[in-house]
Design brief:
Blueprint lengths: L5 H6 L5 H13 L25 E2 L13 E3 L6 E5 L2 E5 L14 E5 L2 E4 L5 H11 L5 H7 L16 H10 L7 H9 L66 E7 L22 E4 L7 H4 L4 E4 L9 E2 L3 E3 L2
The structure holds calcium ion (CA) (2 copies).
One calcium ion binds next to loops.
């Protein structure tokens, strides 16, 4: 399936620290053609499944939310969208995607709140200040590098353990793989958050390996505006049916589950939590260095949970419905 393998190798369970460092170096040294367009606040596109969704700014989540409602909670101030209880189609139909996406199954999930966007540098910095949590060394390197330092860019260079610690501080947790996929694709099994067509030739919907990619661009003609992580919420036309942003591309996102390529053949279909043990953790959504196949809502990948030395992986958090 792969159109180009190098970035796939460095982010996946085949991760090689030396190759990873080389990629970071290449990205840091390559000339940038990133547009200097920085939104000052997150855009709130109306969710497709509930165009009249409301924004709640309450200490506790609303008691009777509807799909796509937004709750702005503390302590991190992140906007979360409501994904209602019910079944959705998880995985890919026959003939599509990688082997680990099969068989496609109907999975039930209880309702939950999902961060609307990836966790940003500004939010992660508040967590570090409040807790004294040790920042990974790469964090400081990229923190001092203008391509990764904007407060609204997603934080990168964080391990699974870092992400889990942040989530605990925020009173949240990392999403299960199934929660992540439902929030990204909605209940109807669409290929991308916005639908099933890769129509980014005419509409900017995501940050992927476009002509700005400094390493191995997959397209020399399509310009998505960024050759590095874009400020979160830069692509409101790429929103998921519930209104989540950047679930295709920008940065990979850690999920709570251990990774097992065969999990869909035996895993539970009622609030699945993933395998009980493993070596790698699931990452989802692709990133600014990857092409369309990896940005599909069903695409699965994985990485060492201790891995920090990469500039294309971040996370978002989830909170169970009360
Ligand atoms: Ca791009
Ligand atoms: Ca993402």
């Amino acid at each position: 399936m792969s159109r180009w393998m190098f970035p796939r190798l460095v982010s996946s369970r085949l991760l090689c620290p030396a190759a990873c460092a080389a990629l970071v170096w290449l990205a840091a040294c390559a000339p940038s053609c990133v547009a200097d367009e920085r939104p000052t606040e997150l855009v709130f596109p109306a969710p497709e499944i509930n165009p009249t969704a409301v924004v709640w700014r309450t200490a506790d989540p609303p008691a009777h939310p509807r799909a796509g409602d937004v709750w702005v909670c503390s302590p991190d101030g992140e906007a979360m969208v409501y994904v209602p209880s019910g079944e959705f189609r998880m995985g890919s139909p026959p003939g599509e995607g990688d082997e680990d996406e099969h068989p496609q199954r109907s999975v039930h999930l209880n309702g939950f709140w999902m961060d609307k966007a990836e966790v940003t540098n500004a939010e992660y910095a508040r967590f570090l200040t409040a807790t004294g949590h040790p920042a990974p060394s790469f964090f400081y390197q990229h923190w001092n590098h203008s391509r990764y330092t904007h407060p609204h860019q997603p934080v990168v260079g964080v391990s699974w353990d870092d992400a889990a610690a942040y989530a605990e501080w925020a009173g949240k947790r990392l999403p299960t793989e199934s929660e992540w996929e439902k929030a990204a694709r909605g209940p109807d099994g669409r290929r991308y958050p916005w639908g099933s067509e890769w129509d980014i030739q005419t509409t900017r919907r995501c940050n992927f390996s476009d002509c700005n990619d400094p390493v191995a661009r997959s397209s020399s003609t399509i310009d998505d505006g960024y050759g590095y992580p874009a400020p979160v919420g830069s692509y409101p036309r790429g929103a998921s049916p519930y209104g989540c942003l950047d679930m295709a591309g920008n940065v990979w996102e850690w999920c709570a589950d251990w990774y097992d390529a065969a999990y869909y053949t035996y895993g539970e279909t009622y609030n699945p939590k993933g395998p009980p043990t493993g070596i790698y953790r699931v990452v989802r959504g692709g990133c600014w260095l990857y092409d369309a196949p990896y940005l599909r809502g069903a695409a699965r990948d994985s990485a060492y949970p201790s891995c920090r030395d990469f500039n294309y992986g971040g996370f978002r958090c989830v909170k169970s419905e009360r």
